[in-house]
Amino acid sequence: MVDLTFLADVWAPATVVAMIVGTALGIIIGALPGLGSVVGLSICLPFTFGMDTVPSLALLLGVYCGSVYGGSISAILINSPGTPQSAATVLDGYPMALQGLAGKALGWSTASSVAGGLISCIVLIVAAPQLAHFATRFGSIEVFALILMALTCIAAVSRGSMLKGLSMGSAGIFLSLIGTDPVTGAARFTFGIQFFTAGLDLISVVIGLFAVSEAFTRLAQDGKNESVFSGVRLMLPSLSEWKGRIGNLLRSSAIGCFIGALPGTGAATAAFISYATAKQLSPRRDNFGKGEPDGVIAAESSNNAVTGSAMIPTLALGIPGDVVTAIVLSAMVVHGITPGVRLMSEHLDVVNAIFAVLVIINILMLILAFPIVRLFGKLLAIPESYVMTGVIVFSLIGAITVRGNALDGVVAVAFGVFGYALRRGGYPLAPFVIGLVLGPQFEENLRRGLLLSDGDILSFPTHSWIALVLFLVTAGLILFGPLQTLISGRFARSETARLSREP
Amino acid sequence: MKIITLAAIGVALSFSTSASAQTVEMIVPFSAGGGTDSVARVFEPGFSEALGQTTVIRNVAGASGTIGAAATADAANDGSTIGYLPIGPLAIQPSLRKTSYNADSFSYICQTTSTPVFLLEKKGSEMKSVKQWVERGKAKRIVYGSSGPGTIPHLAMAAFAATAGLKAVHLPFKGTGPAMNAMAGGEIDLFADTATVLEGNDVTALAVFAPERLKTYPDIPTMKELGYDLDFSVWQGLVAPKGLPKDLQQKYAEACQKAIATDRFKSLAEKTNTGIKYRGPDAFEAFVAENTKKNRKILAEAGLVK
User: Fold this and answer.
1) Same fold, B16-115+234-301 and B118-208
2) In angstroms, rounded to a whole number, what is the distance separating the alpha carbons of residues A204 and A476?
3) Where is the signal peptide (chain B) (predicted)?
4) Chain B residues with CB inside 8 Å of A466's CB?
5) At what angle do helices A293-309 and A348-380 cross, to 10 degrees?
6) Secondary structure (H, E, C), A297-348
7) Residue B297 CB burial class (10 angstroms; 0-12, 13-18, ≥19)
8) B137 compared with A377, residue with greater pLDDT
9) What pLDDT score does A343 carry?
């Protein structure tokens, strides 16, 4: 018989209040550009010192899960991801909003977020120890192979010209090199300016590329178009609309669950990998980037699937995979619970309470999403010039907030100008962001792999079975496109030849 | 629109960096929620109370803490800005890269903590002692991890490898978490970090990088006992821009001493296995100068400084 005494902790009034407040606060913080999960958690952490263990964990987990979902609200409504995790949601969410389908897009993102979150809760509850141990088999070379595979998705999201897409992806990777060398600690590509030694902040760049350049684009159109935001209401997709999209949802959630369990990768990476996979496999792949719900589903289900599975290494091995789980761990330490390998055996009641709290939070998200979206809809239902002014003010404050450095605002404006130029030139923005997100992990794992193999990159595929499989899949993905073109080209030619022979 | 405007003004105001005469701004060079920040946030109430002035923490993160340290060094030296800095930006980073400041750019107020690091291996390893690892490391290559180049885990291991004459490869990770994952997966053999890391992970401590055995870990030998005179700890302290008036320096130092003696600070230290260590202005300044020199020598031996 399972010991259910932990449920008393979960249903205690303090915990219930903590879950509701935490989740609502998380969604709002997530929806404000620049204020992400880490900021939200840091704001709440001091309050947990005076609270009991379960309510304080409920507050922090609510903020965490809420913020990952909340980022999609601004991604869809103002073309600016509220958190880096929802950078991939912009790609199809905003085009949907432009077509007047903002409520629908928000519905897809809400439903997918909740589904992804719940699926990862199930994975966490059922398979945490197994998955955690499997994840430790991903060493530097295996993760390098995984990121390499993910980078091939640049090709998948390069709409129009492949050359333009690849050059934007490379530009993103090169910009990610600015800062500190991960192996030697030396400053590089900084032009001797101290600000650059910290590297470019992802959220400032993304805010500039999407939100600020959007405002410039509107400015150039001389305010002739109607506001697309007025009276936005969340509209959940009906069951029949899910037809043909469930596979995408499950696949993307699975990708999120797995990436989340790998320490040091994170939700932004998971969202882009799922997006690219969906773009390869979806029957509606041609519509990606133009406002395809499948794109929103892929991005949002996988980034929320990370929330549950990021707790896997944290709970099963005591290894915080990222800053977020590190903060949750530090809250446990304050309450006298030593996180780590013995957590599950020594504090099973707390672990069970965490499971229950995560499930409830994901359901709460679905309920709280309605009033919060209405609130944002009301805020945005004012003349476009005001909205755009607000977007710029908020975006820049957001960019500056992340590291407390005003120069990040300058970076956002510079990338706003750059992003505007790219849009005018028909260069896709998505590959650029993917390069920027994956670049640092690509480099770090490559460099560590080279240190381990004495500089012999050719030994990478034979390092382990996992590495071999990942490299083969990558090779397959690279060859698949050209081969397909080649074969269909031949077929078309022979078809033409056959037709021309026939009288 | 009103709401947006009001909110914007509210947020903007919270960013105004101008400190009034009554408020002391305390720069923490890492993000809110990090290790340094969480200690600083518990230190701050006791310090404010002892000083009788409001202290506001400002997180200026980035580039291993050097951006925040530079902001501290560049601030006005009238006591309105102080910095809560750990070892990295104070005594390591200025040797590792070009920074706009160095250890001489500050007036020293006090040291607050000092936490020694342990030599760690994966739990259940067939290697049982430092001696076995030294033998293995002389015969063939061993791999040690760190939470980044130029961090204390890196320096402690680099110094150990050099002193013991090991054939060792350094694998830097972004933070302790990913490094612990690599240790669980067998990618790295050894790691050096504090008791928090020892307690939270599936690792065993082989030795402690301290001159004497710790009261809390009486069974773990010191590196010195084993024949390697190595002393490495993670420490933090309070500094101000150079030229802080002597009377203020003394006043702040006294408040600092009171702050680390509060129950609140002591209980946090106990829970996080942080060692409390007070050094006054002169002793702290001499300690930082000496520590900088020592770290610079190790970095040079590791080939990271020309």
Assistant:
1) yes
2) 35
3) 1-21
4) none
5) 150
6) HHHHHHHHHHHHHCHHHHHHCCCCCCHHHHHHHHHHHHCCCCCCCCHHHHCH
7) middle
8) B137
9) 74
Which of 38-57 (B) contact A at CB < 8 A? Answer: 38, 41
Chain A residue with the nearest C-alpha to that of B93? A185
* pLDDT, average across residues A418-433: 86
- What global pTM score does this model have? 0.77
**Contact (CB, 8 A) for A466 and A139:** no
Of A356, A296, A367, which Cα lies nearest the Cα of A66?
A: A367
User: Tens digits of per-residue pLDDT, A436-479?
Assistant: 878 888 999 999 999 999 889 899 999 899 899 989 988 887 78
Cα–Cα distance between A332 and A338 in angstroms, integer? 7
> Tell me: domain B16-115+234-301, CATH 3.40.190.150, correct?
yes
Sequence length of chain A is 503
Separation of alpha carbons A425 and A421, rounded Å: 6
- Partner residue opposite A264 with nearest CB, options B67, B70, B174: B174
Minimum Cα–Cα distance from B63: chain A residue? A198
- CATH fold label, B118-208: D-Maltodextrin-Binding Protein; domain 2 (3.40.190)
Contact (CB, 8 A) for B145 and B188: yes
Residue of A56, A203, A333, A438 best to disrupt the B interface, most CBs of B under 10 A:
A333
H/E run at residue B112: strand B106-116
Q: Which of A264, A196, A309 is nearest to B147 (CA)?
A: A264
Bridge partners, residue B208, by sequence: B118, B222
Among residues B259, B277, B252, B279, the alpha carbon closest in space to that of B42 is found at B259
Residue B179 contacts residue B190 (beta carbons within 8 Å)? no
Give the rounded percent of residues in chain A with a pLDDT score beyond 90: 26
B34/A contact by beta carbon, under 8 A: yes
Residues 125-164 of B with CB under 8 A from A: 143, 148-150
- Residue A1: the pLDDT is 42
CA distance B2 to chain A (A): 9
Supply the DSSP symbol for B211.
Answer: S
Q: Which stretches of chain B drop beneath a pLDDT of 70?
A: 1-22, 32-34, 306
How close does chain A come to B7, measured CA to CA in Å?
9
pLDDT digits (tens, 9 = 90+) for B247-270: 889 989 999 999 988 888 888 888
Cβ contacts of B8 on chain A, cutoff 8 Å: 390, 393-394, 397
* Contact criterion met (CB below 8 Å) for B105 and B75: no
Three-state SS sequence of A175-204: HHCCEECCCCCCEECCCCCHHHHHCCCHHH
How many CB pairs below 8 Å do chains A and B form together?
A: 178
Alpha helices in chain B (DSSP H): 2-15, 35-51, 66-74, 87, 93-96, 130-139, 152-164, 176-184, 195-200, 246-259, 263-271, 281-301
Burial bucket for residue A164 (CB in 10 Å: 0-12, 13-18, 19+):
middle
Percentage of residues in chain A having pLDDT higher than 70: 89
- Which residues 71-130 of B are in CB contact (within 8 Å) with A? 96-100
Distance between CA A45 and CA A180 in Å, rounded?
A: 30
**Contact across the interface for A390 and B268, Cβ inside 8 Å:** no
Which pair of tokens denotes residue B75?
């601030």
- Condensed to tens digits (0 to 9), the pLDDT of residues B280-306 reads 899 999 999 998 998 888 888 877 776
Q: Is B102 exposed, middle or buried (0-12, 13-18, 19+ CB in 10 A)?
A: middle
In chain B, the residue whose alpha carbon lies closest to the alpha carbon of A192 is B98
pLDDT at A256: 92
Rounded mean pLDDT, A407-428? 90
Instruction: Please say whether the beta carbons of B145 and B172 come within 8 A.
Output: yes
Where in chain B are the domains?
A: 16-115+234-301, 118-208
